[in-house]
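name: query_chain
kind: protein
chains: 1
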Amino acid sequence: MNDQQLLRYSRHILLDEIGIEGQQAILQGRALVIGAGGLGSPAALYLASAGIGRLTIVDHDSVDLTNLQRQIAHTTERVGQPKAESARATLHAINPECQVTALVERVDDARLATLVAQHDVVLDCTDNFQTRHAVNRACVAHGVPLVSGAVIRFDGQVSVFDPRRADGRAPGPCYSCLFPQDQPFEDVACSTMGVFAPLVGVVGAMQAAEALKLVMGVGESLAGRLLLLDGLRMEWNSISISRNEACPVCGTPHQ
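structure:
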């Protein structure tokens, strides 16, 4: 790191758990953020400000006036612009050293497989089960940890699904273990149900925190745990998640 980087990231370097080595790992890290909306905005902002070396943002949608109540990566002047490109402009202003790639596209399984394989961690900041399951399948297939978040009304949730186990233990549960992909789930849109603006900031920031911990290899991740936030009471609940051996995505195949 040069003198400017040592100064910019000094508050990280002061932390014994991070130090020079941890910050260097962040600078060399590669994060994929799927969705540049309510969750993706704060998640990407914190990843970029923390110095993540390479950040890819994927979103096919454009900035709408109704987004600005909570999607803090965008501005009034950018209404009508692609969200991914709007987010890239914001991130560049915060940290020009972060290499940000903006992909204005709707990704399918094949495209996700290519993208996931090129990154160290994936943040699912989408709002529909179909995409979440597609992202999960790609992460399991390529052994890349997935940080998942969701918010609707005053309720939020966040977890980590990590298919890696370097210590010889079995991999942890995947997203499909918690929400089986063969079961019907009704997508609930914030356009009809509403969403409390600061809540996406809380959950998105937690996604960034978990992603950075995974990149550095510090602390204990949320793998195997689902955190639920009741925003009205401001109470957190933690639920243990077990791996489903019969899961069609990550379960043990039968011979």
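note: The CA atoms of residues 177 and 247 lie 6 Å apart.
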